[in-house]
Amino acid sequence: xxxxxxxxxxxxxxxxxxxxxxxxxxxxxxxxxxxxxxxxxxxxxxxxxxxxxxxxxxxxxxxxxxxxxxxxxxxxxxxxxxxxxxxxxxxxxxxxxxxxx
Length: 101
Known about the structure:
Layout: H1 3-7, H2 24-40, H3 53-62, H4 68-95
């Protein structure tokens, strides 16, 4: 082991991937075609048009298929229980079992 190898830094790992040919205009055109076919109700034999997820989630919540209120209540109750348990554990840690009895 030479003196110079002690001070040499190793080379960083290089990541070099050659991308395949990508045509952004073609991709945009295909996306527009899918959207238009979905809006007109025309279906491809291979694919079904699915609108954006954000819009679907809002419509699901509005129509009551997903009960957000009960999920929020369960989450709040779970959070309250965790807080009470942590407060109890902190009380026992600080004051011991003698403070309880």
